[in-house]
Amino acid sequence: MFLAEPPLNNIVSPGFNLYLFLISIILIIVLIYKMATRCKTCENKLSANKAGTRSFTQYKNALDSGQHWGKTNLKYYFYSTSDGPVVQDGEGESIRNWTETQKNNWRTAISEWDKHCGLTLTETTDINEQDIKLYLIDDNSYPYLGHAYFPGSVFKGQNYCSYNNATDKNFTVGSYDYITMVHELGHTLGLAHPHDTGGTSTVFPGVSNSANTGTNQQNQTAYTVMSYNDLNSPITPNNVQSYGFIKGPMAYDISVIQQLYPGGDSQNTGNSSHILPSNNTTGTVYETIVDSTGTDTIDGSNAGTNKVFINMNPHSVDGDSGGRDGWVSKISGVDGGIVVANDTTIENAIAGEGNDKIVGNDADNAIQGGGGNDAFVASNGSDLIYGGNGIDRVYFPGNIGFYSIIKYGTRRFVIYGIGAYGNIVGKTDVRQMERL
Ligand SMILES: [Ca+2]
Ligand SMILES: [Ca+2]
Ligand SMILES: [Ca+2]
Ligand SMILES: [Zn+2]
């Protein structure tokens, strides 16, 4: 009898804490050996975070330098050796010419910011029109991957990438080195680090230095590209690769940049299929998706029998852990995946032939588990869940006393959530299902 089964809201495995502890130890050891620092924009002393209720405002204040551009049309310009040998901030690095491949990767990084906010970032070949100045510097004595200045600086717009320190000289989109482009451009537009007090910014809750991931591990590049926890974060690869990192601003960055420069492009209009990357190769990235309209799907059906984890919920951007294994939907063993942006609604999900786990959201969902022994976390709304083959199970986050269950034939159940007044507050129609 399914009602007699173990507590339905207990979905954390008993090995969780030990795993987290071991990961933390490895993280600390590797960080000690980390050679290059992402950038040196902010050298202010760190400030301890006050305890208290976490909110988006708290995270926004940590990423907002307080310095912003006073206009929305910004032109960017690629510096070359023909523009003269002296870098304008007087630090004396020598300039190198950008290759066309490097420029194209910059254009991707720039468009990734452009589409999420009301700024219009366009290229110019007229040095007199430049707002954002893109330098490739080549200096053996320079110890950083890049640096940039806030919009309130006399050096505003200046943005430097170090060729000398880059492992992937192309700055391939999704590579460890490409992060520099997205990160430094964040500074150029006015974003600060989550771990220090650049401009008038605060720090993320629970963060006392750049290596801390903070409360619920929010200080990592999977959630903000302004973090230093890129290499060896809990999610990204543990060594420098030409894939496996981020493509653009992530959930916190997107929510903050939208507030600083309201507006932004419609994205993924129509019915969209957001396919989870299924192998580690060039182009495999972590990406935060904004989806404006349509009936949309996160699709992990190309995972084969590798485990798929899908969290359909939009990132809360208020310090929540995601609560159900985190905010990143991904295929096990693949360094890449999807985070749903805060204001985006995904309706449907498809897993693969492995033992997968899917967490629904407040919308009306249609969810397919595929083969394998799948686990589903039920959610608000009127949902339809197909277990597929295997021994599948649906977990309900509330007390079983608040649900009414009707069984239809074999392997089909309809579960109604019961509100405080005996009213029906949600419906989950479960098919091909062995366990509740
Ligand atoms: Ca869509
Ligand atoms: Ca499955
Ligand atoms: Ca739902
Ligand atoms: Zn930085």
Calculate the mean pLDDT score and round it.
87
Please summarize the sheet with the most strands.
8 strands, mixed
SSE pattern: HEHEEHEEEEHHEEEEEEEEEEEEEEE
Kindly report how far apart the N and C termini lie.
Answer: 10 Å
Spatial ordering of strands, largest sheet = 8-10-14-16-18-22-21-20
Supply the helix-strand structural class.
Answer: alpha/beta
Strand content: 15-25%
Question: If you had to describe this structure to a student in words, what would you say it looks like?
Answer:
This protein has helices spanning 16-32, 56-63, 100-114, 178-189, 251-260; strands spanning 37-39, 73-78, 95-96, 120-123, 132-137, 144-148, 158-162, 273-275, 286-289, 297-299, 308-311, 330-331, 337-340, 348-350, 357-359, 366-368, 375-377, 381-386, 393-395, 403-408, 412-418, 424-431. An 8-stranded mixed beta sheet has the order 8-10-14-16-18-22-21-20, with no helix packed on it. Strands 1, 2, 3, 4, 5, 6 and 7 form a 7-stranded mixed beta sheet that branches. By secondary structure, the protein is α/β, with parallel strands linked by helices. It is elongated. It contains 5 helices and 22 strands. It starts with 15 loop residues before the first helix and ends in a 5-residue tail after the last strand. The protein is 14% helix and 21% strand. The chain binds calcium ion (3 copies) and zinc ion.
